Amino acid sequence: MRVLALQYHDVVGPEGPDASGFPGPAAATYKLDATNFAAHLRAVSAVAPATRRVLAPALVTPAARAAGVTPVLFTFDDGGVAAYERTAALLETRGWRGHFLVTTDYVGAPGFCSAAQLRALHARGHVVGAHSCSHPTRMSRCDDATLRREWGGSVARLADLLGAPVTVASVPGGYFSRRVAKVAAACGVRVLFTSEPSANAYQVDRCLVVGRYTLRRGSPPSVAAALAAGRLAPRAAQWTVWNAKKLFKNVAGDAYLRTRAALLRG
User: Fold this and answer.
1) What is the structure's pLDDT at 149?
2) Taking a C-beta distance cutoff of 8 angstroms, is the pair 48, 235 a contact?
3) Dist CA 227 CA 95 (whole Å)
4) Which end of the chain has fewer CB within 10 Å, C or N?
5) Nearest to residue 73, comparing CAs of 185, 215, 176?
6) What is the pLDDT of residue 66?
7) Do residues 180 and 139 lie in contact, with contact meaning Cβ atoms separated by under 8 Å?
């Protein structure tokens, strides 16, 4: 099955990037200015008609699989308060609904959505899903017991908060493995977003694993539109960079994280 999922984090205004979601320079690289994001929406909407605007829970239905249409999805990690204050309304003006993946230990913390705000997003037709409890730095290195706490705890808390099952999640930090997906599936996750830049979704146990193409601060609207249209060049570019970075992560381990943090501080 093919899916074109776009990965964002926060959409910020004049208050600056630290007002929503995780603070600091590393997180800020994933936060788009509201004007730029509105331009992304216009550009993507021009290439993705309503027939391709599918929400993640529908991906696992027989009808979606039989349709033969490659859907386009907007996803937003972490659970920053901008999801409620700004992003959802911008999506709705263009007829979209988003997937807001929430780090549940931070619900109600400064800069993050409150329980009431998450319920309001759910009531407006957006998907509210899990992004782990604590946002582990390297989730693929967690043992099975920790993974069960991260997935099971976040899914259970959101289900209790929303009064509805939670079956959608995303992997924090880009550290994915099949074991991460297997434990997520055992905790009731049926669609799991990764940061792997791929349009080819695949099954791990009862969980559909869906890659995503990342849009960062300063990404031009034309790139978002090209990714949503399924064009090869921008997808291949992300795949090449991602896999080079993945190799470095695996070889360097924690040194990769220290090097990245130092570069961002600089």
Assistant:
1) 98
2) no
3) 19
4) C
5) 215
6) 76
7) yes
| Alpha carbon distance 174, 242 (integer Å) | 10
**Strand positions, DSSP E, the chain:** 4-8, 11-12, 32-33, 72-78, 99-102, 127-130, 168-170, 191-193, 202-204, 207-210, 213-214
Helix (H) or strand (E) holding 248: helix 232-252
Terminal-to-terminal C-alpha distance of the chain: 42
Q: What is the dihedral of CA 217, 220, 225, 230, to 10 degrees?
A: -80
Tell me the CA distances in angstroms from 139 to 102, 104, 179, one per residue in order.
15, 15, 10
d(CA 266, CA 263) in angstroms, rounded, equals 5
Q: Is the dihedral of CA 35, 80, 8, 72 positive or negative?
A: negative
Q: Are 13 and 34 in contact, with CB atoms under 8 Å apart?
A: yes
**Model confidence pLDDT, tens digit, residues 54-88:** 999 999 998 877 778 899 999 999 999 999 999 99
Question: What residue ranges do the domains of the chain occupy?
Answer: 4-231
Residue-wise over 49-66: b if at least 16 C-beta within 10 A, else e?
Answer: eeebbbbbbebbeeebee
Mean pLDDT within 175-192: 97
* CATH number corresponding to 4-231: 3.20.20.370
User: What is the rounded (10 degree) CA torsion for 198, 199, 203, 208?
Assistant: 100
C-alpha–C-alpha distance, residues 156 and 147, integer Å: 14
**Share of residues in the chain with pLDDT > 70 (%):** 93
